[in-house]
Write a structure and sequence with these properties.
Helix content: 40-55%
Number of strands: 31
Strand content: 5-15%
Largest sheet: 8 strands, mixed
């Protein structure tokens, strides 16, 4: 009796598991052994996943027929093994009309169905967005024309289904061994495959060997017989990976609710072809899986076979399963997929984990199920190409048919080892349509233009004798721009390229060439930044010559010129071929679009007209002339398009740089005007002699006085009135009458001294006004910021911080531009300005000195404002608002049921009480609010209105006295606690949220331990709510309402004439959308509203969760009271020895660790990082605990950066440096210690340096000591802490001594300088201040600094400084030049010490003569000395 057949299956993924099960079912007596590196199911298998799509929609009928068979097995009543794991949800594809048509035809052919019975529904793109709320923001980029919905499709729990299939096979008798195949075994005369050897030395043999090894198949074949190319996979199989990401979807209407009933979503086109399986009803119901369907390869050179093979990681430790640790570029791509699908429709989706899913892919995406022609008994079942899993129930059946030789001729040919793998994809969306082609061409030319300019300037610098200088921030900006520009260049895999025409492939080829140049430039720029130790290169020529030789520069420029010429030719050919696809509708859409889209329309029309004209020409010469003119027209239009897109992008970059996070906070905190107040402002006061104010209506609509002043007592409602005016449609209508035919620009700003510093500064005022104005008139950006515009044009960006002089000049330029436009500024709270108010007066007087500029200002009636504005149109609120206050009080009391009851009993007393409150308020709305609250809170204790009247009589009618009464009423038990709360809020400078205060208000030791032990991750919703409620109650009990947490819940009344707008969204302009115009966010006015304004609601306030709302003073007047000297002194006394810095530092770290992006509209990590470092710097004394807290902050920020790399990206050849976001310095720190050095953290830095932690990335190239002595002004932590306390800067002598003691050489070279040379030159530079400072400053400040430098010079000499360097001075003696005039005795002593050292050097053979200058100003190479000046 013959022995039963034996089968060895290598791999237990989809192919291996299904085949093992089918083999055992077909041959129960067969010996079937499965080998796999892991127990089943293997988590590294492509089929092992959270979920996989199961669908039948294929372009070719054979694949669709198989998919329908498989789907039947997954469905209820099909295969009981896999059926329980299937979830029918439907699937939605974006598609072209051609593809949708082919799918319908395939269904009708296979099912024999009529047109209406095909299980597909066609949806327009907008209809799809409406049907699936999650897709409301989907971009559908890349050629999709419609969507198709397949209701029968769904997804399967992949890992569970795979495990069940293998389990069923094992239950049926299949053996399963955990082992990794190392190589195939061959033997016999015909060299047949006999088995495999594993990495642990075991051998497994069988009559039939099936390689179901997926992505490892090409490597295993090459490793098994490197000398036998016929066995190798060659181009038949390539190991590739697709990027998957599990996104956690938060609950709520903007999260999980959007996915309720959502189908699978697939978008196979554009830069990010992708699919998304929505959260299901399994244990992972909050996770959405997004897959970027762009294959990645990992090419490795296989030395034995002398070929390059793409292979997954070979070691078990490196194999890609689900992880949180992937390169930044990959995680950014996952975020791009999410953004492409959902835009702003779904909020708070954060990555939970990533996976590179490896599979073997074939050129035509058809599998290989075939005997291997080069080896008997060897069979291949691989090439899943990322779409095999859905066939898990049936694929084994067809492998068994292949083994038996019974596979149908069609499938045998389709899955053969040797077959014609040229693709025949017919989907036109894989091609590049004319509009897209023009955009790609402009993008390529934009990159070429920018890169060529950078290289050309570099060559010019090299050609100069003296050499210009480049700053590090310019190099950072250039690098950032190259990253952004190269990011918009198209890239395609080989399969996609084969689907394109020759001209389209040429376009992609030009794009690839640009990407190659970009990579080279980024690497070179990174090297260039490491060449210079200071912020500005002292020898840019030398640095450039090191990085870019003249030959390399010429080569790069030549390649860029080839790109420029090549894209013109490729684009011309492509457009000529496809211009007939452009419909009149497309041209109309472009015509109605932005300036960029109009230029695209001109380009396409020109090509179309030229092509039509070319067809009518006769004669070769005439045709050539026509073709030449056609090319010239295309080049001109492309040049226009490139310039326009570049201009749009630079404008948006500058606007984004102007904007700051707190820009809208103050306005959001101002309460909306009560519906019955302030309506008098729209009365024409000029028509009534009895009105006590200048007509505001007349001022708005006429061109008389350009300034209007609104003034009033504290709490009289000035800010509320300003907000009411700005958001009322009547204001804009009246201003348009003033503007006439000229464009109108309206800007606003609310100064606020209870917020962050920028909210009360001139910088914040100017940045906000400029942002508002330029947002509405972006064409003015280049005129307003002329110097920065030039910098942007060269560098593509400008990373410098705004300074006051630049902003003032920009504002002046803006108002000077008001010859063709009219500008109206509304500025509230001049008295809240953190500076000399006279500067504001002068600023606005300058503004209105220009025609076509109006300014409406509000402030308290300070003398400086009275003097400046008393002759201008104005109004004083407390003189006008008595009727408003009366109506306001009635509204409050009439909504109280207890008062209504009392009023019915004593109507006269009730009416009199309301009038008395109004009279006693003396025009102060805030006083009314406080009094009404006090009276109504005590209503239950009184039975008569007359009792309330007596209570009113007892209350002070002055706000300050009222606050004093409240302050004095704080329970003695809470005196210390309340004072500590006041100090915490004051020290936080307006940056303390409710939950932040809850962390800071813990006991010191508990707060510190919490900050150290708390895991990184968001709090639960209940924890956040509990802490919010706790703080809210604590503020009421301890602070008696002087501090509050605003609720931002406005009551929208039926107030006519309110307009949308001026709540500015954060402007983000991605490269793909730079052609979108910048428009004002103001609702159009219906003509009917001119006579009868309709109700338009004010924009919604900021959607901030309660626990993240900032704690604030009840009003600015309350802040003034609590910060008045006597009250502040009393608070400090009550608070005791309270050090607020450590609680606030602990709180900031806890806020960082518990940050949850799903609940916040913007990312606070950078601001929290700044706050934490500032709190650490202000701590009374440094301690080991503080050092631990700072280390924990570093760890936490790094963790957020890895899991959410897009929260801050400082582009440096694509690297992510979160530290750059947490400093106000003009440069970008790249390590935490470098960041810490920019704050006064002397002890922390000294401790880390003594523990040998590197402070800078390039510390090997530039010694730390060199930076301390030459750049101490940039790094406060390197400064002497004693002198720093007196606001005097000098290097830290103790730190310098430590470094010298531990081996730092004063003569070590850095570029063209040495540490010793830097010490001498810095000493001279400091000493020259004596000629600019007054005598008092010289004695009190300069001499202590010089004494510090004396000590540094002495230490350097002691540790072997080159004595001959002392002659590098205009006076021939650096020491005497630095110290001789102010510290003559010390200078003499140091000079003597240096001379004695000079005498010893020759004996020690250490003497080296400094190299003098040659006539052209260059120095010869010298290992020790620096350039000598004026010897």
């Amino acid at each position: 009796m013959a022995a039963p057949p034996s089968y060895l299956i290598v791999g237990a993924g989809c192919f291996g598991a299904s085949t093992a099960r089918a083999l055992k079912a077909a041959r129960p007596d067969a010996d079937v052994l499965v080998l796999d590196p892991a127990p089943f199911p293997d988590p590294a298998a492509a089929a092992h996943d959270l979920n996989k799509i199961v669908r039948a929609e294929y372009d070719d009928r054979a694949s669709m027929a198989l998919a329908l068979e498989a789907k039947a097995a997954w469905s209820r009543g099909g295969d009981d093994v896999v059926g329980p794991f299937f979830h029918r949800t439907g699937a939605l594809w974006s598609a072209t009309a051609g593809r949708a048509r082919r799918l319908r035809e395939n269904y009708r052919s296979l099912l024999g169905a009529g047109r209406d019975e095909v299980p597909l529904e066609t949806l327009g793109l907008e209809e799809a967005r409406a049907r699936v709320p999650a897709l409301g923001g989907c971009r559908f980029e890349g050629g999709a024309e419609q969507c198709i919905l397949s209701p029968e499709a769904g997804w399967a729990e992949a890992a569970g289904a795979l495990g069940a299939v293998i389990g069923a096979a094992v239950d049926a008798g299949v053996r399963y061994e955990v082992a990794t195949a190392e190589r195939l075994l061959f033997g016999g005369e015909d060299d047949a495959c006999t088995g495999v050897r594993t990495t642990d030395g075991r051998t497994f043999e069988a009559q039939h060997v099936l390689l179901c090894s997926g992505a490892y198949t090409p490597w295993l074949l090459a490793e098994s017989a490197p000398e036998k190319p016929s066995l190798h996979a060659g181009g038949r199989l390539t190991a590739a990976a697709v990027l998957m990401c599990l996104f956690k979807v938060p609950p709520g209407e903007n999260g999980l609710d959007k996915f309720r009933g959502a189908p699978i979503m697939v978008h196979p086109y554009g830069s990010f072809p992708a699919e998304c399986i929505p959260p299901g009803e399994t244990d992972t119901r909050y996770l959405a899986k997004c897959t970027h369907e762009f294959p990645y390869t990992r090419k490795t050179y296989h030395e034995p076979s002398k070929q390059e093979i793409s292979v997954p990681p070979l070691s078990r430790a490196e194999r890609m399963t689900w992880t949180t640790d992937l390169p930044d570029g990959l995680t950014a791509n996952s975020a791009s997929v999410r953004d492409m699908f959902f835009g702003d429709s779904v909020q708070g989706m954060m990555p939970e984990s990533y996976r590179l899913c490896w599979d073997s892919s074939t050129p035509d995406e058809n599998w290989i199920i075939s005997p291997h022609p080069a080896s008997k008994n060897l069979y291949i079942a691989a090439g899943g190409s990322f779409h095999a899993f859905k066939f898990l129930p049936i694929i084994g059946k067809y492998v068994v048919q292949m083994l038996d030789g019974k596979l149908s001729e069609e499938l045998a040919r389709k899955w053969a080892w040797d077959r014609d793998t040229r693709t025949s994809k017919e989907d036109p969306a894989m091609a590049i349509d004319p509009v897209t082609a023009v955009g790609l061409g402009a993008g390529i030319l934009q990159f070429v233009q920018f890169a060529s300019k950078v290289l050309s300037v570099s060559r010019e610098i090299q050609d100069t004798v003296a050499g210009s200088t480049l700053e590090n921030n310019e190099l950072e900006a250039i690098t950032r721009s190259l990253v952004l520009l190269s990011g918009q260049l198209i890239a395609m895999d080989d399969d996609s390229l084969r689907a394109l025409s020759d001209s389209e492939r040429n376009i992609v080829s030009m794009s690839s060439l640009c990407r190659e140049v970009s990579c080279e430039l980024l690497v070179d720029l990174e090297q260039l930044k490491l060449k210079g130790p200071r912020t500005k290169f002292t020898s840019t020529v030398q640095a450039l010559k090191i990085v870019w030789s003249k030959g390399k520069l010429d080569n790069l420029l030549l390649r860029l010129e080839q790109c420029r010429n090549g894209i013109h030719t490729a684009l011309l050919v492509s457009l000529t071929e496809k211009i007939d696809q452009i419909t009149p509708e497309v041209l109309r859409d472009l015509q109605s679009g932005t300036d960029t889209e109009k230029i695209k329309m001109d380009t396409l029309k020109a090509v179309r007209d030229s092509k039509a004209g070319l067809a009518e020409t006769d004669g070769i010469t005439i045709q050539r002339e026509a073709e030449s003119e056609m090319r010239a027209t295309l080049v001109r239009n492309l040049s226009r398009l490139t310039q326009q897109e570049r201009k749009d992008f630079l404008q948006s970059e500058i606007l984004e740089h102007l904007r700051f996070d707190d820009q809208e906070e103050r306005e959001s905190r101002i309460q909306q005007a009560h519906t019955k107040t302030f309506r008098w402002i729209w009365r024409d006061a000029s028509a009534h002699d009895d009105t006590p104010w200048s007509s505001f209506v007349t001022w708005l609509e006429e061109d008389r006085d350009p300034l209007y002043w609104i003034t009033g007592k504290p709490g009289s409602g000035k800010s509320t009135l300003m907000k009411y005016i700005v958001h009322n449609l009547r204001c804009e209508r009246l201003l348009k009458q003033w503007a006439g035919q000229m464009p109108l620009v309206i800007t606003k700003f609310y100064l606020w001294n209870s917020g962050s510093h920028i909210q009360m500064s001139q910088e914040g005022l100017l940045r906000s006004v400029l942002y508002d104005a330029l947002q509405q008139m972006p064409t003015l950006v280049s005129k307003v910021f002329t110097q920065r515009w030039e910098k942007y044009q060269f560098c593509g960006s400008d990373l410098r911080r705004w300074d006051s002089s630049e902003l003032y000049q920009a504002f002046e330029s803006l108002v000077m531009c008001a010859t063709d436009i009219k500008i109206c500024l509304f500025v509230d709270g001049l008295d809240e300005f953190d500076g000399d108010p006279q500067r504001l007066v002068e600023l606005f007087h300058m503004a209105i000195s220009h025609p076509n500029v109006k300014v409406c200002l509000s402030s308290r009636p300070w003398a400086v404002f009275e003097e400046a504005f008393h002759r201008r149109p104005s109004l004083r609120l407390e003189d006008i608002t008595y009727p408003d206050i009366l109506a306001f009080i009635k509204s409050i009391f009439e909504h109280n049921s207890g008062f209504v009851t009392l009023g019915r009993r004593e109507p006269e007393f009730a009416c009199t009480l309301i009038e008395n409150i109004a009279k006693k308020s003396r025009g102060v709305f805030l006083w009314v609010t406080l009094v009404a609250k006090s009276l109504l809170n005590g209503l239950s204790n009184y039975v008569r209105v007359s009792d309330l009247q007596r209570r009113l009589d007892d209350l002070p009618d002055d706000l300050e006295q009222f606050y004093q009464k409240i302050f004095a009423s704080i329970d003695s038990f809470y005196l210390t606690r309340s004072s500590q709360l006041f100090e915490l809020l004051d020290a936080s400078q307006g940056n303390l949220t409710a939950i932040g205060l809850s962390f800071a208000d813990e006991e010191d030791s508990k707060a510190i331990q919490m900050a150290l032990d708390c895991p990184i991750g968001p709090l639960t919703g209940q924890e956040s709510q509990d802490r919010y409620e706790q703080v809210k109650r604590r503020l009421v009990s301890c602070c008696k309402g002087l501090l509050e947490i605003p609720n931002f819940k406005y009551q929208y009344e039926e107030e006519p004439g309110l307009r949308r707008g001026h709540m500015r969204p954060r402007r983000k302009t991605p490269m793909a959308n730079i052609n979108r115009s910048i428009s004002r966010c103001i609702a159009p006015v219906d003509p009917k509203e001119r006579s009868s304004p309709s109700r338009v609601l004010e924009p919604k306030p900021l959607r901030t969760p309660p626990h993240l709302r900032k704690v604030a003073y009840i009003h600015r007047t309350a802040r003034d009271f609590l910060k008045s000297p006597p009250i502040k002194s009393e608070i400090a006394e009550r608070a005791g020895a309270f050090n607020y810095s450590i609680p606030l530092l602990s709180s900031a770290i806890l806020m960082i660790k518990t940050w949850d992006s799903t609940t916040q509209g913007f990312n606070p990590l950078a601001e929290l990082g700044k706050c934490a470092l500032k709190y650490a710097a202000t701590a009374a004394k440094s301690s080991a605990l503080e050092h631990k807290l700072l280390d924990e902050m570093d760890r936490s920020m790094e963790a957020h950066c890895k899991t959410s790399p897009k929260w801050y990206k400082a582009h440096n050849a694509g690297a992510v440096y979160w530290q750059s976001a947490c400093t106000d310095s003009s440069f970008a720190p790249k390590t935490f210690l470098e960041l810490a050095s920019t704050y006064e953290l002397h002890s922390y830095l000294s401790s880390k340096i003594q523990q040998n932690f590197p402070v800078f990335l390039d510390q090997n190239a530039i010694p730390l000591l060199y930076r301390i002595v030459s750049q101490y002004s940039d790094y406060p932590s390197f400064q002497d802490p004693v002198l720093s306390d007196h606001r005097i800067a000098a290097p830290n002598t103790e730190l310098i001594e430590y470094l010298f003691r531990n081996g730092s050489d004063p003569n070590s070279r850095t570029g063209t300088d040495t540490i010793w040379g830097a010490i001498l030159q810095e000493s001279i530079k400091v000493s020259k201040r004596q000629y600019h400072w007054c005598t008092k400053d010289v004695e009190k400040r300069l001499i202590p600094i010089l004494r510090s430098w004396v000590h540094i010079v002495e230490v350097a000499i002691e540790y072997g400084a080159n004595p001959r360097m002392n002659i590098n001075s205009q006076q021939g003696n650096c020491i005497r030049e630095a110290f001789g005039r102010l510290l003559p005795s010390q200078a003499s002593r140091l000079d003597t010490l240096n001379s004695l050292t000079g005498k010893r050097w020759p004996k020690l053979l250490k003497f080296i003569t400094p190299t003098p200058k040659d006539p052209v100003g260059k120095t010869h190479d010298d290992p020790v000395s620096t350039t000598v000046y004026n010897i």
